[in-house]
C-alpha cells in the first residue's frame, strides 16, 4: 500500500454506498487537504466488509480501529481526532451489546470472532479497482505456479483432493466436474462463471465480484488451463451495475498485465474472458437454462444428460461454476489442499458464505467453517434476535430451501445435514424469522416467487405451483377447508417428484418444511380461522375497549376509510365491514384502547 | 411486416446496434439490453425491427422479451420507484410500504401515473438486506423505509 503512514478503508459495497459512503470519501479528501495530510494518509474505497447492519463502516490502518454507522459529517472529526491527535472517536466505535463496552478492533467483535474468510479474504482489504493491490496479496501467484509447474491433470488433482464442492447450492464436487469437462474431446471448450444470483436475500456473489473481482478471473483462467478452454464467460445479472463495472475494469487490467489474453505469463496458454448479461430470471441459475440464456434464447432448462461437460454453450463442452466456488480456488493452490481440508467437517470442507438477514441484530455477509451450528451463526455472530423477540425459524436455501426451527439450532451446517433437515444449502441466503412471522404466509410468499419465476416448460411446475399458491392464498384468507392441508401436501410431493429441473423439484420445499415443523399454524388457519402470529390480515380484527377509550376522536380522524365512529368523549366503535386493517388507529391511540385479535 | 412508426434516426440507431453484434441472433439479449437503454422500453416496433435485422421471427424476439423480467414493453415513469420484495425486506415490512405507495400514487404495481411522473414496480433483492426494507427511485436508494415515510419520499420529487 505505498509509502503512506495511514490508510482509511471505506466500504463501497452496495449497502454502504446506499448510506452515502461515497460522500464520506469526498469529505475525507477535503478534510485531509485542509490539514495538509493528503500525502500521509491514503483513502481506499474497498469492497464489502460484511457488517452491513452497522454501515457505513470504515477501518483505520495500521491500528485497525473499526468505526461504524459513520456519517459524512463525521469525516472531519475522524481526521482531526484520530489522525492528527491520535485519539479514537469513541462515539463511533462499536458497542458490544452484552458488555456495553466499546470495541475498537474488529477481531474482538462477536460478529467477526467466529468467521474464517477464504472466499471473502480480500473483501474490505483491497481496492477492487486496482490490480496491484490484489497482486500484493498473492494475487495471480496461483495461476503462475499452475501454468509453469503443473500439468492440467495435476492441477485438477489438487482441486479434487481439496474436496471442494460447488457453492451455488448443488454441492457437486468441483474437481470431478473439471475432470469430466477435460475428458470431453473438442476443438473448443468454455469456462462459465455463474453470477446470476437470483435467490432473494443472498448477495455473496455480488459482494465477491464487487470486492475482489480478480480472484474470480484468476480462478477461471486456472480452470481454463485445466480443462483445455481458452474462452471464459461470466454470466451476470444486469441488475448488478457496480459488479459489472468492476469486472470490466478488472478484465482490462488483467489484459494489460498479460494475465489474460495470448501467451499468458510467457506460456503457450491463451485465455480471455467476456461478460454476458442476464435479464432477470431465477431459473437461469440452473446450468442448462443459463447456457440457453447465454445463447440469446429463453432461459428454459433441458433434461440432463447430456451434461454441459459434454454439450453446453454452443454445443461445446462447458464447465459452469458459481462465483463463490471460483473464489475458493486460488487459496487452495497457494496453501495446498491439505490446508483446505483442515477447515470444515467430514463431508463438507472449507467455509461457506452466508447472507444473514431478517430479524437478527447483525445483518451482514459472513463466512464460517462448514459444520458451524445455526446457533453460533444466529446468536454469536448474528447477535440474536432483534428487539429481544423470540426466535422462530431460519429459512435457508431461498425459494428452494426450507425453514429450520429451534430443534435444528445445534445441527452443524453442511450440505448433507441441511438436506436431511428438510432444507438445503442453496446459495447461502439465511433469513431469520421471529415470533411475529406467520409460517403459512412465508410459504405463500415463496410460492408467489416460484409462480412468477417458473419458466412454464413443464406442467407440474407451471400449473402445480400455481394451484399450491391458490390454496395457500385461500388458507391465509381464512377460507381454507379441512381437506386443503392434505391436498396441499399431496400436490407438493407430486411437483417434487415430477418436475423437470431443480427449480420445480425444490419449489415445494418451503411448503413441506413449514408443514413438517409448523402444522399447528396451518391447522389454526384452516380450523380455527386464526393466524397465531397475527400477520394474515383477513384473519385479524381490530377492536376498541370501551373501558379504555376516552373518546378523543384521534383514531376516527386517522382512519383512511372512515370505519371508526363515535361521539366526542364517548367510546368509539370500529365497523369491521369497512375496516381495511391498516393499523393506523392502533398506532395513534394514546390510551392503549385498540387491540388486535 | 407492419409499417414502422419509428423515426429515421431511431431506426438507424437500432440497425447500428444490431450491426455492432454482427446481426448474430445469438446476441439477441445483448441487443435488447442496448435497445432498452436507448428507448427506456421495448415497444412492438422495436422488436419487429430487431427481428428483421437478426433474421429471426418476431415471435422469437417477443418470446425472449416476455421471458425476462428486466425487459419492459411499457414505458417507465420519469421517476421509476422500485420496492425490494426480497425475503429480508418482506419480513421487515416491505408489503406495507408497497400498499402505502399504491394508495398514495393511486396506481397498481407495474403501472405508471397518468402524468408519466412515477411508475411502481417490485423487484427481488437489491442485496442491501442490512437496510431492509429498501426502496429505490432512479439511482437513489432509500433504506429502512417505513410506511409513514412514504409521503415524505414522494414529496421529494
Commentary on this structure:
The complex is a heterodimer of chains A (597) and B (157). Chain A has 597 residues and is an alpha/beta fold. Chain A has 23 helices and 19 strands. In chain A, the strands form six sheets. A five-stranded mixed beta sheet of chain A has the order 12-11-15-13-14. A four-stranded mixed beta sheet of chain A has the order 2-1-3-4, covered by helices on one side. In chain A, strand 13 and strand 14 form a beta hairpin. In chain A, 56% of the residues are buried. The model of chain A has no long low-confidence stretch (mean pLDDT 93). Chain B has two domains: 60 residues; 77 residues, 3-Layer(aba) Sandwich (Glutaredoxin). In chain B, strands 2-1-3-4 form a four-stranded mixed beta sheet, with helices on one face. Chain B is elongated, with a radius of gyration of 18 Å. In chain B, 37% of the residues are buried. Classes of the chains: A alpha/beta (597), B alpha+beta (157). Chains A and B meet through helix 1, strand 9, strand 11, strand 15 and helix 17 of A and helix 2, helix 4 and helix 5 of B.
Q: Would you kindly provide a brief summary of this structure?
A:
The complex is a heterodimer of chains A (597) and B (157). Chain A has 597 residues and is α/β, with parallel strands linked by helices.
Any chance you could write out the topology, listing elements then pairs?
The complex is a heterodimer of chains A (597) and B (157).
Chain A: E1 6-11, H1 14-18, H2 21-34, E2 41-46, E3 58-61, E4 65-67, H3 74-85, E5 94-95, E6 102-103, H4 110-113, H5 131-136, H6 141-149, H7 152-162, H8 174-183, E7 190-195, H9 204-211, H10 213-227, E8 231-237, H11 241-256, E9 272-278, H12 287-294, E10 318-322, H13 323-335, H14 337-341, E11 351-358, E12 364-369, H15 374-381, E13 391-396, E14 402-405, H16 415-420, E15 429-434, H17 439-453, H18 459-476, H19 482-498, H20 502-506, H21 509-526, E16 542-544, H22 554-558, E17 564-565, E18 573-574, H23 584-588, E19 594-596
Parallel strand pairs in A: 1-2, 7-8, 7-10, 8-9, 11-15
Antiparallel strand pairs in A: 1-3, 3-4, 5-6, 11-12, 13-14, 13-15, 16-19, 17-18
Helix pairs in contact in A: 2-3, 6-10, 6-13, 7-8, 7-10, 9-11, 10-13, 17-18, 17-21, 18-19, 19-21
Chain B: H1 8-20, H2 28-39, H3 44-54, H4 58-67, E1 79-84, H5 87-91, H6 94-105, E2 118-123, E3 135-137, E4 140-142, H7 150-155
Helix pairs in contact in B: 1-3, 2-3, 3-4
